[in-house]
Amino acid sequence: MLEFAILGLLHQAPMHGYELRKQLAAVLGGLRSISYGSLYPALRRMQAAGFISTDEPAPRALLPADAPPLTGRRGKVVYTITAEGKERFHELVSQTGPEAYDDGGLFGVRLAFFRHTARDVRLRILEGRRRTVERQREGLRSSLARTRERLDRYTLELQRHGLESVDREVRWLSELIDSERAESGDRPAPRAGEDDGPAAARHVPT
Q1: Residues 6 or more apart from 122 whose CB is under 8 A from it?
Q2: Assigned CATH for 2-56+76-93
């Protein structure tokens, strides 16, 4: 996830470490905290692999001419994606297997860089994610049906809340998939349980 996100950000523009960490926090959306202790080792590994290069300030450029002696100020190292890094990013962005959508965190990062992803790949990832979440929903429904009578009302409300969250994600994914298909001119295929989709949600009486 971290390598993919770093390459995706540097694909857009070169950045120094502080800016890269700030942008990573925005892309990951609070899914995980990126410390300098994890960022810089990752950057060193990626540099060793040839995926990124650094533009370090020349020694004389580190300080202004009138800087006082023994000052601790330093110039900032700028990280830039290389041609090999772009190839690696496009390799990662083209993956459509379960690794792209089974994990919610990685799926979120993939979604953040969908503009770099081909439409057919976007569709396969979105459909894979929807299948994953639908399986989760069925598991929650089965669990709730089995244990409903044994749960106190607070635990029951917690499980209902989880089920509602999963329902919302399925509807959201269906809307994204319909939008992708509409842009490509494809007609959405009929699906089992279509009443769970966004169209049905919009027609629920209030």
Answers
A1: 114, 180
A2: 1.10.10.10
